[in-house]
């Protein structure tokens, strides 16, 4: 164990018409520090995760965190970015500070304000997380990239529309009881399975219910070392925190394998000295339902090409053998790019402290988290457990 999460905060995800990046940051920064039982003056370093890329007119956002409290003034603050895994990248930066003994308490904030732009601009910004030289003209933006992945998967392994609809329905069912989720509605399998005016095809075989939402929101957490955490009210320890990157161009790899995801999980299991069977639940990066399906295979839940079994046989439901996305995932909770990785760690920490309300699983002991940037390019896996 290298560090612990000792406090957190999370705005509702959705459309925040009266908030900008700055106000979203301020809400969670002060709340997370207070939740840890600390004063802003106790924080030694601030790391902000924000994808940016045209979503906010304000560049250079690191010092916006200082607006939350005068006591943050003159603290080191840095903005990091790693596409849709930006939140996890910010956490890793904080973990390195703790490991290097360069600070005792690190505040990590993830944020994105996405809904202030017209749809085409949002799509153009998101497409920047792909390899523009080869993939910049794909129709449908980033959804188009995953539409192509889904079409290739169907070609290799057969039509998986039923499985994708099961994944969407599961995550909407879970998100219906998450008060922080953008879409708190249990849509059901039939709605997710059948194209309709309210659920049209978006890209390739992917329908609207297969795609995560455009969201505003922020999440934050406080990190400290294990010795310090032992004396605090709550402490969630990192058994493992792994980061691997793969090639950016889809043309340089078999995109149906999510090999970076597979390597990250294997390294995390080795470091934590556990296996997939030891996990109580997983929060995984379901930016599109096809991604969650392939991630089942990459984490070792099923054989290659058989991810549909986990969805169709109920393995990943809350009452299944490995609940996946009890929070509702990106599909239901929302996906404000820079906030997502931090949100996943907050949701897992809530489960492990039995403070997840109606989302709560029965006595979870060990959490797995997978957060990715791009199409399995930046891959982060965390394994978390209560310190005591």
Q: Helices, strands, pairings?
A:
Blueprint: E1 4-10, H1 21-35, E2 45-49, E3 77-80, H2 86-99, E4 105-113, H3 119-127, H4 132-135, H5 141-157, H6 161-175, H7 189-193, E5 201-203, E6 206-207, E7 216-224, H8 226-229, E8 236-245, H9 259-272, E9 281-284, H10 289-298, H11 307-312, H12 329-333, H13 337-352, E10 367-373, E11 378-386
Parallel strand pairs: 2-3, 2-4, 9-10
Antiparallel strand pairs: 1-7, 1-8, 4-7, 5-6, 8-11, 10-11
Keywords, separated by commas or semicolons:
two-stranded antiparallel ribbon; Thiolase_N; Thiolase-like; alpha/beta; 388 residues; 18% strand; Peroxisomal Thiolase, Chain A, domain 1
Rg, please? 19 Å
Quickly name the level 1 CATH class of the domain at 4-117 and 214-229.
Alpha Beta
Query: Percent of residues in helical segments?
Result: 25-40%
The structure class reads: alpha/beta
Q: H/E order of the elements?
A: EHEEHEHHHHHEEEHEHEHHHHEE
Number of helical segments?
A: 13
Tell me the major beta sheet: 9 strands, mixed
Strand order of the largest sheet: 3-2-4-7-1-8-11-10-9
User: Which CATH architecture of the domain at 4-117 and 214-229?
Assistant: 3-Layer(aba) Sandwich
CATH homologous superfamily heading of the domain at 4-117 and 214-229: Thiolase/Chalcone synthase
Shape: globular
β-strand percent reads 15-25%
CATH structural fold name of the domain at 4-117 and 214-229: Peroxisomal Thiolase, Chain A, domain 1
| Distance linking N and C termini | 13 Å
């Amino acid at each position: 164990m290298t560090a612990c999460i000792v406090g957190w905060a999370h705005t509702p995800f959705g459309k925040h018409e009266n908030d900008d990046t700055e106000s979203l940051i301020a809400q969670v920064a002060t709340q997370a520090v207070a939740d840890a039982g600390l004063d802003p003056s106790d924080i030694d370093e601030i790391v902000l995760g924000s994808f940016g890329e045209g979503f906010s007119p304000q560049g250079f956002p690191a010092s916006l965190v200082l607006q939350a409290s005068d006591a943050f003034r003159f603290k080191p603050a840095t903005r990091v970015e790693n596409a849709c895994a930006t939140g996890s990248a910010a956490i890793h930066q904080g973990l390195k500070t703790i490991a290097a003994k360069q600070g005792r308490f690190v505040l990590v904030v993830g944020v994105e304000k996405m809904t202030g732009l017209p749809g085409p601009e949002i799509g153009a910004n998101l497409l920047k997380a792909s390899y523009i030289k080869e993939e910049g003209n794909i129709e449908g933006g980033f959804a188009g990239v995953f539409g192509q992945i889904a079409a290739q998967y169907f070609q290799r392994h057969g039509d998986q529309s039923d499985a994708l609809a099961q994944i969407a329905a599961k995550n909407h069912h879970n998100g219906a009881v998450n008060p922080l989720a953008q879409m708190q509605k249990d849509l059901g399998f039939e709605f997710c399975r059948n194209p309709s005016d309210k659920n049209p095809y978006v890209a390739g075989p992917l329908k609207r219910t297969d795609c995560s939402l455009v969201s505003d929101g922020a999440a934050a957490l406080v990190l400290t070392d294990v010795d310090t955490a032992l004396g605090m009210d709550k402490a969630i320890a990192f058994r493992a925190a792994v980061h691997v990157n793969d090639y950016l161009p889809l043309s340089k790899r078999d995109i149906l394998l999510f090999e970076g995801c597979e390597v990250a999980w294997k390294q995390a299991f080795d470091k934590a000295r556990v296996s997939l069977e030891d996990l109580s639940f997983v929060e995984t990066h379901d930016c599109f339902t096809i991604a969650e399906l392939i991630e089942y295979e990459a984490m070792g839940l099923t054989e290659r090409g058989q991810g549909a079994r986990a969805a169709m046989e109920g393995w990943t439901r809350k009452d299944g053998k490995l609940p996946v996305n009890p929070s509702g995932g990106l599909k239901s909770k929302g996906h404000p790019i820079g906030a997502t990785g931090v949100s996943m760690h907050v949701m897992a920490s809530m489960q492990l402290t039995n403070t997840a309300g109606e989302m709560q699983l029965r006595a979870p002991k060990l959490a797995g988290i997978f957060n990715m940037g791009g199409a399995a390019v930046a891959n982060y896996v965390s394994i978390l457990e209560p310190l005591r």
